[in-house]
Design a protein that fits this description.
Layout lengths: L2 H12 L7 E3 L1 H8 L3 H13 L3 E4 L8 E5 L3 H14 L3 H9 L5 H12 L3 E7 L2 E10 L14 H10 L4 E4 L4 E4 L2 E6 L5 E6 L13 H12 L14 E8 L2 E6 L5 H5 L24 E6 L3 E6 L12 E6 L8 E3 L10 E7 L2 E7 L10 H10 L2 H8 L3 E4 L5 H4 L9 H10 L7 E6 L2 H15 L5 E6 L8 H5 L2 E7 L4 H10 L4 H5 L2 H16 L3 H17 L3 E3 L1 E10 L2 E2 L15 E2 L8
Parallel strand pairs: 5-14, 15-23, 19-20, 19-21
Antiparallel strand pairs: 1-3, 2-3, 4-5, 6-7, 8-9, 9-11, 10-11, 12-13, 13-14, 16-23, 17-21, 17-22, 18-23, 24-25
Helix pairs in contact: 1-4, 2-3, 4-5, 4-6, 5-6, 10-13, 16-18, 18-19
Length: about 600
């Protein structure tokens, strides 16, 4: 802790909004400062030298010392925040607010001041104009390893750092060259050859070659790494980097290699670094200059092989108190006429309840799962809770949900179905992802279940703990949601096959084998219509067996200032950082 931290804690512990002298002792100060009495004396001397306190030592045994606080807490804290902002140390300003139990009114005032520093800004540093985007984060990031990225925020940020061999273009619905400028495939799609661009460099300066692609593939395939998408290469029989800029893969059965190599999970790593959390290296439009649990700073990669980012920096801070329900791309402190646009982003995916089939309990019983399905009046849930909940869900794809009408069922009928199950009134662990709307859903479902004699005990789960095995060992049911990526076919494959998928983690072996057979048919189908026929079979199986219970589809409102250009939202509701730019104010006279 710094001197200003000690003063703040000392004031909060002893002053109680009074600036008069109060009694204390060295031993009490040591407890407040969490240090030895010797160090407490040093801290007190430092606070005196800063003219923040006036200390009068107690004379004689049993006589306490007197301390007067010379700086009112409100002005002191605001002064410290202003100093951090002026020195561009927003991480320290946030840490200062977050680490002290400040009065609510003062805390709100500090956060209001901090909020002005976020959004899209243009700053002058060393006579150079810098375009900076500052974004508050609701939670700390779980992982930026592209092979393991399974959460929307992490996936989006990893896309700014790493590149894939192939990209998917949603506008043309085609695969387009990226790190690989060309490719060839045998007529049976068992042999694939990719040709790499020359001159692509990693963030640490080394040129990308086929050895890096080979390293990435082998890392995915290695069972000891437990990479969730290693099933991509389950039929890979041989891979060879026979040229610095060419790579050939041979599979034992037809394989949609373009689909797989467009996945972020197969983003190419540098063979000499791999993935090192303390030294993350990719080829993407941004490189990391600072990364810890509180802050992530990305800087424009000037040697990017494609179009360079228009932003100079992106700074993300752990600041849940600055988060609003809407995702806002703002331009604070602008002198021009304030103007904002709103865009409604409807997510492709669904919220749902998943049952844990890897744990013994009543959730293994079909009639119990059917009762859970019946107690959730989706339309009532949407109407009562409001917010971003927009439509009853009966599928992961809204286009397939149709105009679902839920059959009205009485409490007596639901109790009857529950009596057919093996549920005996025991408490069930109902996990939910710790996000305000999801918590509201969980509480609504808990209360509805209680009305027919079902006892659901709520357990919040941080997204940072998404990969924790505690979920699969302890949860009976999980309330979550899935946002599909732009390439829906890849999203469907990830949803039902990846080991990081919530569905995959909670189904049993028999269920997994049934789904795997269908996903194999899905991937090898000759055209889109055939693939979606197979997808219907998968969802019919999921619905009929009540493996999961669909609830509703969601949307989000995104607001952004009229001066901000380049906003095109992806499937996750994020705008590509590298395409954002601020329109100069040309109205001023020159």
């Amino acid at each position: 802790m710094n001197a200003f931290d000690y003063y703040t804690e000392f004031y909060l512990a002893k002053a109680h909004a009074s600036h008069k002298q109060v009694e204390t002792s060295i031993s009490e100060c040591a407890r407040i400062f969490y240090c030895s009495e010797r160090n407490a004396k040093l801290i007190i001397h430092k606070l005196e030298n800063n003219h923040w306190i006036h200390w009068v030592s107690g004379r004689g045994r049993g006589n306490k010392s007197q301390v007067a606080f010379l700086k009112p807490l409100s002005s002191f804290v605001e002064e410290q925040i202003d100093q951090f902002i002026k020195s561009h140390q927003l991480d320290k300003a946030l840490a200062f607010i977050q680490s002290h139990s400040l009065p609510d009114s003062l805390s709100e005032k500090c956060y209001k001041t901090m909020k002005q520093e976020f959004g899209y800004r243009t700053e002058n540093k060393k006579s150079k104009e810098m375009d900076i985007l500052r974004i508050p984060m609701r939670r700390q990031l779980a992982t930026l390893d592209p092979a393991f990225a399974a959460i929307t925020s992490e996936s989006h940020i990893a896309r700014q750092l790493f590149d894939c061999l192939i990209n998917y273009n949603i506008d043309s619905d085609t695969f387009v060259p990226h790190l690989a400028h060309s490719w060839e495939a045998s007529s049976d799609q068992k042999k694939w050859t990719f040709y790499l661009r020359k001159g692509v460099t990693f963030h640490h300066g080394r040129e990308l070659t086929s050895e890096d692609v080979l390293f990435t593939i082998r890392r995915i395939c290695d069972p000891s790494n437990q990479v969730p998408c290693r099933w991509f290469f389950q039929s890979l029989s041989h891979v060879s980097a026979h040229h610095p800029y060419a790579l050939t893969l041979i599979f034992t059965k037809p394989t949609p290699a373009l689909l797989f190599f467009s996945s972020l999970n197969l983003a190419i790593l540098s063979a000499d670094v791999g993935f090192n959390p303390s030294h993350i290296i990719g080829t993407g439009p941004f490189r990391i200059v600072k990364y810890n649990s509180k802050q992530l700073v990305l800087e424009r990669f000037g040697d990017y092989f494609s179009l360079c980012a228009l932003l100079n920096r992106v700074e993300l801070y752990y600041a849940p108190n600055l988060i609003s329900q809407q995702k806002i791309y703002d331009v604070p402190n602008t002198q021009r006429q304030s103007s904002a646009h709103e865009e409604i982003h409807e997510e492709i995916g669904s919220n749902y309840i998943m049952f844990n089939f890897k744990k013994a309990g009543p959730q293994q019983d079909y009639w119990f799962r059917k009762t859970i399905d019946l107690i959730i009046d989706r339309q009532a849930m949407i109407c009562e809770l409001g917010g971003d909940r927009i439509r009853i869900s009966n599928s992961f794809l809204e286009t397939q949900s149709g105009d679902s009408l839920q059959v009205s069922v009485t409490d007596g009928q639901m109790k009857h179905y529950l009596s057919l199950s093996n549920y005996g009134g025991q408490k069930l662990k109902f996990y939910y992802f710790d996000h305000p709307p999801v918590k509201a859903d969980a509480q609504w479902i808990q209360e509805r279940a209680k009305q027919i004699g079902m006892n659901l005990e709520l357990y919040p789960l941080s997204m940072s703990d998404f990969y924790n095995e505690k979920l699969t060992h302890e949860a009976d049911m999980v309330l979550g949601g899935e946002v599909m990526e732009e390439n829906l076919e890849l999203g469907i494959a990830h949803l039902f096959r990846d080991e990081s998928s919530l569905i995959r983690r909670l189904i049993n072996q028999k269920q997994a084998c049934r789904i795997d057979l269908l996903i194999d048919q899905f991937l090898q189908a000759g055209n889109r219509a055939a693939r979606y026929r197979v997808f219907h079979l998968i969802e019919n199986y999921v619905r009929n067996e009540r493996l999961l219970i669909y609830t509703y589809h969601s949307r989000r409102e995104v607001t952004f200032h009229s001066a901000l250009e380049g906003i095109k939202l992806n499937a996750f509701g994020w705008a590509d950082f590298s395409k954002l730019w601020i329109k100069p104010d040309l109205s001023a006279e020159t």
